[in-house]
Amino acid sequence: MATEAGPDPQWSVDALARPDPTHRARRPTPLWARSLRYWMYQYKKTWRGSVTTSFLFPVLYLTAIGVGVGSLIHHKVDGVRFLDFLAPGLMASTAMQIGGNDAMYPVMAAIKWLKTYFAMLATPLSVLDVLIGHLAWIALRLCMVCSIYLVVMAAFGTVHSPLALLAVPVGVLTGMAFAAPIAAYAATQVNDMGFSTIYRFVMIPLFLFSGIFFPLDQLPGWFQAVALALPLYHGVALCRGLVLGHVGVTALAHLAYLVALAALGLAVAARTYRRRLVT
Q1: Total domains, the chain
Q2: Is residue 22 included in any domain, yes or no?
Q3: In this predicted model, which residue has the larger pLDDT, 88 or 15?
Q4: 197, part of any domain
Q5: For the chain, what is the radius of gyration of the CA atoms?
Q6: What digits encode the pLDDT tens for the residues 76-101?
Q7: How far apart are CA 154 and CA 164, in angstroms?
Q8: What distance in Å separates the CA atoms of residue 187 and residue 185, rounded to the nearest whole number?
């Protein structure tokens, strides 16, 4: 005669209440990571459009200017080939352009056109979570672009030191030194007309007069002082020193300048975001 089976001890209430010794407590995911995951998901659908800026532009710039124009320059520039002098500067300028671009129209769209930020704020995310998540995505994208650029530079034979690997985080920092302040500015705009001003009067002059194509000592004395105060110059000098293996004590000053600018931009962005998004 069959007897009624008792409750399975494995599924009893007491057993479920007892902690599993093999279970590891999972740390809660920071809220800003949710914002980061959104931007990563968006990029999964649009990454093909960034292949040109991420991979093709480095090849074209180094081929046309570094190899093409460099073949006409028979003397060394600051003791190195023109191609070796140019490549690290182009890496830093690309970081500036990517950081600035991703902090302009995407921020405007998230506030005015698509209202993505407001959708995020309808969840437990705070304004600071929204901001940090977006800037974290820009930093991640900068890391991808700078890594690709370094590989292309190595293919062109312009990498001369193992320290060149540190040029990737320096490129990320350079891009963030532009992305954070520009994001703070973009959050205050009601339309995108001000972005063309940044391109024309900030990015293009920085691209031309930050020591990418020629040493700063070829400029007039007063203009050298102006160029030294420009943020891109410090990113160019750091990347060039790391790639060529010529790192001096001035590297700390360059690094401190970029860190201070990125931190200041983050602090200002936190205020402009809160003023724009919290009514």
Answers
A1: 1
A2: no
A3: 88
A4: yes
A5: 24
A6: 999 999 999 999 999 999 999 999 99
A7: 10
A8: 5
Give phi and psi for 77, each to the nearest 5: -110, 115
197: tokens are: 């001003």
DSSP characters over the chain? --------GGGSHHHHHSPPTTPPPPPPPPTHHHHHHHHHHHHHHHGGGGHIIIIIHHHHHIIIIIIIIGGG--S-BTTB-HHHHHHHHHHHHHHHHHHHHHTTHHHHIIIIIS-HHHHHHTTT--HHHHHHHHHHHHHHHHHHHHHHHHHHHHHTT----GGGGGHHHHHHHHHHHHHHHHHHHHTT-SSSHHHHHHIIIIIHHHHHSSSSSS-GGGS-HHHHHHHHTSHHHHHHHHHHHHHHT---THHHHHHHHHHHHHHHHHHHHHHHHHHHH--
Q: Output the six-digit token pair for 96.
A: 């500036």
List b or e across 80-90, with b for residues whose CB sees 16 or more CB atoms inside 10 angstroms: bbbbbbbbbbb
Residues 96 and 262 sit within 8 Å (Cβ to Cβ): no
Provide the whole-model pTM: 0.88
For residue 19, tell me if it sits in a domain: no
How many angstroms separate the CA atoms of 234 and 261, rounded?
A: 11
Confidence of residue 219 (pLDDT cuts 50, 70, 90): confident
**What is the per-residue pLDDT across 174-217, written as a single tens digit (0 to 9) for each?**
999 999 999 999 999 999 999 999 999 999 999 999 999 999 88
Total Cβ atoms within 10 A of residue 223: 12
User: Is residue 24, in this structure, part of any structural domain at all?
Assistant: no
Mean pLDDT for the chain?
89
**Residue 114's closest CA among 92, 91, 134, 93?**
134
Backbone angles phi, psi at 80, to 5 degrees: -130, 170
- Provide the sign of the torsion angle of the four alpha carbons 218, 222, 224, 226, taken in this order: negative
Domain carrying residue 38: 30-277
